[in-house]
Amino acid sequence: MSSRSGSTSGGSTGGGSSAGGGAAVPLALLLRREVASERTASERPELHSGLFSQAKKGEDFTFLKLECERVPGVPSSSFSAFGLFDGHNGNGAAIYTKENLLNNILNAVPADLNREDWLAALPRALVAAFVKTDKDFQTKDWSS
According to a count of CB atoms within 10 Å of the terminal CB, is the N or C end of the chain lower? Predict the structure, then answer.
């Protein structure tokens, strides 16, 4: 796929170093740290989000969904998702990824998991969803 994509829990899953010069931290470790340091709702800071997008060639797309539910119909399982989809030499892959990646991520995680198990399954689900989205895009007649 000729699109670089970002999503809710983007990060590195391998070795190497980040652009800032530090060592890469596996996504699973970051998620475990988040669960371990979780605070009650009254102790959490209030977070706000916004979205701004400007593309010179019309190849870049953004995605922001504030009210995703890990368990449909259960508001306490809500989370937000965002993405930046950078099209190269066309917008086909960026548009396709924007429209399909989140659903592929959610479909790759078993629905009956509690929050901790869901977060633990998320790194593999992200990889599976990126691969599925890429393969599905390659079978379409879209060009990028």
Answer: C
Q: Which residues contact 20 (CB under 8 A, 6 or more apart)?
A: none
Contact 111/71 with Cβ under 8 angstroms? yes
Contact of 91 with 144, CB cutoff 8 Å: yes
CA 78/CA 89 separation, integer angstroms: 36
Q: What is the mean pLDDT of the chain?
A: 75
Tell me the two tokens of residue 111.
């629905």
DSSP states along 72-136 = TT-GGGEEEEEEEEEESSSSHHHHHHHHHHHHHHHHTS-TT--HHHHHHHHHHHHHHHHHHHHHH
